[in-house]
Design brief:
The complex is a heterodimer of chains A (349) and B (294). Chain A has 349 residues and is mostly helical. Chain A has one domain: ABC transporter involved in vitamin B12 uptake, BtuC. Chain A contains 15 helices and 2 strands. In chain A, strands 1-2 form a two-stranded antiparallel ribbon. In chain A, helix 2 runs parallel beside helix 6 and helix 6 packs antiparallel against helix 9. The relative contact order of chain A is 0.16. In chain B, helix 3 packs across helix 9. Chain B is mainly α. Chain B has a two-stranded antiparallel ribbon with strand order 1-2. Chain B has one domain: ABC transporter involved in vitamin B12 uptake, BtuC (Orthogonal Bundle). The chains are: A mainly alpha (349), B mainly alpha (294). Chains A and B meet through helix 5, helix 11 and helix 13 of A and helix 4, helix 10 and helix 12 of B.
Chain lengths: 349, 294
């Protein structure tokens, strides 16, 4: 157990250190731009997962909160005529606003069960996108832009990178804290059997709504940061159906409802998507590719990398023990990022 | 006289008939298989493109072409079921099937873009351009023919479900999959054929939609599926009668708001109506109470 914890802690520190020094080593702005977007997705998927993954209610409408966060930061920037680093201070407001919007959305969507919930989140998503098109204060089809910062182009991405890093770490830590808490257990109970959970005294309604709000806040913060990074928000980019899909796909690829899964899924898929979008200048081929990838994940890795990997690891250990071979020394060669993270789900369970 | 309330309502009812047809296919698939086929929207567009190819390149009449596109869509539906839906197992099956059909939709959309580009297309025929004078406005014949076709097909589907042996198997599977298997129904075969039928109705739906709507492109699939989902949820998932009522209600409502207020808000009202109804009746208009709780 101790060795496991040490391995886990060591692995986490190693991953964090690699991420922290990444922009100092890689200075190509295109690469760092991908890295910023990837870290944003890590945060967004972790945020999505701590509601959808733990409660089993799959939301395909979290782009609503992404867009609310982005538009909040955009409108406040415009209103207060901010420029420079102060805009970053608006991100918590974006998160707060997303959480506020999550209340009415949750009050309606959480009245129904699984399938209907998915569809309602899609419907709510369309309502928001259409409202962004139709209202005048959102700038309609022109959206809202912010003046670019006058920072040195060579290190332009770095502040965004570290901001996204902080968000990602915070989101994952939040997911970890919730998973181990009483609140998290209540969410998992709802996922397994909602009626029984209620029978056992879980206030399902309140638990679901609070988790929904926390999740929305995380995604809203990501939306706010994304706006500052891109410098413009349009109805179709702020409220983007592909965002809804990507987030769900990343969580499913890594491992729905686990802690490391969403991180892994985002780290694998977002760079891949960016690569595909550059490699195939014809965007439609990229779209077909994404769809095929999606199907492959669902058909061949339906439970995600982390649960499947952790199962394989357990099976491998059991086989080894049956053969009566002693465990190899601590310097096990397979101490890469994936296996220690895989064990993390076991520990918490 | 301009665009009057009469016209809005007539359009709504006639157009609603076509949506009813597409929605019945979707709700039938849900009822039997317990999955939501997100690809239904893009399949409608695919069917419209098939009709387009047949009429432009082979000069086959739109309605006659349905004899080809109908079976073609049926086969496509069964293929999608066997390849992507049937292999799914386990607790998250419903969610996974949703994502799988979403993926299928993305692939079909991408392929349609590659073949046909992103320009809007329209289906043409003599009865699309000529019109009937009614209450002082002109109604293209295609609306009437399309509505008649939709009613005939929904009636045929209804008779199949309630008057034939196969229909009894389908309804038994809808009620209780395990019990249906126990009394000797080949549930997998029923599921595959139902999926095929549910997709096959998009052949007619797509053709009429392509001829009456304001043009279609691969992107139209999103718009269609979100409306269809709203309709079947409003009608109560798995309820065929509910889907028909909800389709006519929603499309008429949209037409009236369109006329009364503005086209850019009619879609918002469309979804807001769904949200509002669900706030009071979570199971939909004609859905059973706590239908399919989990």
């Amino acid at each position: 157990m101790n060795r496991k914890t040490a391995l886990l802690a060591g692995g986490t520190v190693l991953v964090l250190a690699v991420i922290a020094v990444f922009p100092l080593v890689v200075t190509n702005t295109l690469d760092t731009e991908f890295a910023v977007l990837t870290l944003m997705f890590v945060a967004a998927v972790a945020g999505w997962n701590l509601f959808s993954g733990y409660s089993g209610y799959i939301s395909l409408g979290h782009a609503v909160f992404f867009g609310v966060g982005a538009y909040t930061v955009a409108l406040l920037t415009e209103h207060w005529h901010l420029n420079g680093g102060q805009i970053f201070a608006l991100i918590p407001l974006g998160a707060l606003m997303a959480a506020v919007f999550a209340v009415p959305v949750g009050l309606i969507a959480l009245r129904v069960r699984r399938h209907t919930f998915v569809v309602i989140t899609i419907a709510v998503f369309f309502i928001f996108q259409l409202m962004a098109y139709n209202f005048s204060f959102t700038g309609g089809t022109d959206g809202i832009s912010t003046p670019f910062f006058s920072w040195s182009p060579a290190t332009y991405n770095n502040p965004f990178y570290y901001a996204a890093f902080v968000l990602a770490v915070a989101a994952v830590a939040l997911g970890w804290a919730i998973r181990g808490s009483r609140f998290g257990l209540q969410l998992l109970a709802i996922r397994d059997d909602e009626d029984r959970a209620r029978g056992l005294g879980v206030r399902t309604w309140r638990v679901k709504l609070i988790a929904f709000m926390i999740s929305a806040a995380v995604v809203g913060a990501v939306g706010g940061l994304w706006f500052i990074f891109i410098g413009q928000v349009l109805p179709e980019t702020g409220f983007d159906p592909i965002f809804d899909l990507s987030v769900a796909l990343m969580a499913f690829l890594g491992g729905f409802g686990t802690i490391a899964g969403p991180v892994l899924g985002a780290l694998i898929l977002e760079p891949l998507q960016q690569y595909v979008s550059i490699e195939f200048t014809n965007g439609y081929i990229g779209e077909v590719f994404l769809g095929l990838l999606f199907l492959a994940v669902i058909l061949f890795l339906p439970r995600g990398i982390v649960p499947t990997g952790s199962e394989r690891l357990t099976a491998w250990r059991a086989r080894r023990q049956r053969r009566g071979q002693p465990a190899p020394g601590p310097g096990r060669p397979a101490a890469a990022a994936a296996p220690p993270q895989a064990t993390s789900t076991e520990t918490v369970r | 006289m301009g665009r009057g309330l009469y016209e809005a309502i007539t359009d709504g009812i006639l157009g609603g008939g076509v949506y009813a047809l597409m929605a019945v296919g979707l709700t039938l698939i849900f009822g039997v298989l317990d999955i939501i086929n997100i690809a239904q929207g893009i399949l409608v567009v695919l069917a419209a493109y098939l009709s387009y190819v047949l009429s432009v390149h082979l000069h086959i009449d739109l309605f006659l072409g349905l004899l080809i596109t109908g079976p073609a869509m049926f086969v496509i539906g069964i293929a999608i079921y066997w390849a992507f839906i049937r292999p799914l197992r386990g607790r998250e099956r419903t969610s996974m099937s949703l994502l799988a059909s979403y993926a299928v939709a993305i692939i079909i959309e991408g392929v349609l873009y590659l073949i046909f580009g992103s320009n809007d297309q329209n289906l043409h025929a003599s009865y699309v351009t000529s019109a009937l004078k009614l209450f002082g406005f002109y109604l293209p014949y295609i609306y009437l023919y399309g509505f008649a076709l939709a009613v005939a097909l929904v009636a045929a589907l209804y008779l199949t479900l309630y008057r034939t042996q196969f229909g009894r198997s389908v309804r038994a599977t809808m009620q209780d999959r395990t019990a249906a298997r126990l009394i000797g129904i080949d549930v997998n075969r029923v599921a595959a054929i139902t999926f095929g039928i549910g997709v096959a109705v998009t052949a007619a739906g797509g053709m009429v939609f392509g001829a009456t709507g304001g043009g279609f492109s691969p992107n139209t699939g999103y718009d269609l599926i979100s409306r269809l989902l709203a309709i079947i949820i409003l009608g109560g998932l798995g309820s065929i009668g509910g889907a028909m009522v909800a389709a006519v209600f929603m499309i008429t409502l949209e037409g009236v708001v369109d006329w009364f207020w503005s086209p850019s808000w009619s879609v918002v009202v469309f979804y807001a109506a769904l949200v509002l109804v669900l706030a009071f009746r979570p199971a939909g208009l004609l859905g059973h109470k706590a239908a399919r709780a989990q």
